[in-house]
Amino acid sequence: MSGARKLTDDGDGWIVEERIVASEDTASENKSRRSYYFRNQLAVRRELKTVGAKRLAGLHLIEKDIRTIGAWVVALKSMTLELMPTKNRMVARVTFMPKDERMLVVRGLFVAILATYGKMFTTAAGRGTSLDKSDCGVNTEHLKVHDWLMHQRHTFAAHSGLQSQEGCQIAIAVDYKLRTAPKLFVELHQPAAIEPSALDEIGALLKVLHANVLAKIKKATKFAYSESRQQFTDSELKSMVRGARGWWLRDGKDLTRRVKVEPEQEVPPAEKPTTRLRGRRLTALVGRLVPVSQAPQPKRK
Questions:
Q1: Quick one: DSSP state of residue 15?
Q2: How far is the C-alpha of 207 from the C-alpha of 211, rounded, in Å?
């Protein structure tokens, strides 16, 4: 079996090794395997299956979708400006485009943007989380762009034919002087592309969504790390690493803090501590003290 190998250095001592193994069966998907090394030593890998880990994974998928849509928007704007005649650059979100084979790619990007954007705001069983309209911020223009994208997604990309976003009618045209036989015409209409100014508005909305999702990921990461202790028993922890007691603190303490485990050393016996007087005993002793001049002097011989 052939495959590919990629190494990623996180810069903090960790190295991620990813291997993609090609499947012998053409009907099945290729398998991806990852290994982790700390200071060039293989680390123990365990998949987390907690609720927090599932939500964190869903947020990372959404964050990847936002970056993907952003790249599509940039590519779509470049192609649209190249194909769209200057006289047709109307102030409209959807406009007519010239007949060109490249328009198939433009339309494909248009559909992909609508479908992927809508997926982030709908309940996905495999992701365990989704975005809400409040994640778009409080800017009125951003909310309008969000509503327009969701409307296009529901009526064009996801549920085609529900409204007038796309359709096809068959019409017959009859020459009233009967100079020729009636003819049938196909009236097919579908949105072809998004006007460039609307793409800029989508790009601004994506920046707000990306910042809010990154904040959610940061919070969810801390929760997933603290929750991960519940998945493993004490025996499993001992089989994974040395010093597991210092890895995850127990009894409801802060699980996100790591404790450095030092090797056991012989501790020298401590000296007997000096007795300290406090409180009433110290006050009583100070009351019995007299100046040095009044203290009884030893008799000289």
A1: E
A2: 6
Among left, alpha and beta (phi > 0; psi -120 to 50; other), residue 54 is: alpha
DSSP three-state, residue 5: strand
**pLDDT of 28 over the 80 cut:** no
- For residues 126-134, give the mean pLDDT: 88
pLDDT digits (tens, 9 = 90+) for 168-214: 889 999 998 889 999 999 987 766 566 778 889 999 999 999 999 99
Dist CA 214 CA 150 (whole Å): 22
> Hunting for tokens 């800029």 — which residue is that?
200
Number of alpha carbons in the 13 Å side-chain half-sphere of residue 161:
3
Q: What is the DSSP string of 146-199?
A: HHHHHHHIIIIIISTTSSTTSEEEEEEE--TT-SS--EEEEEEE---EE-HHHH
DSSP 143: H
Does residue 249 contact residue 257 with C-beta atoms inside 8 Å?
yes
Cβ(19)–Cβ(5) under 8 Å? Answer: yes
E runs forming strands in the chain: 3-9, 14-21, 31-38, 41-42, 94-95, 167-173, 183-189, 193-194
Find the distance separating the first CA and the last CA of the chain, reported in whole Å. Answer: 108
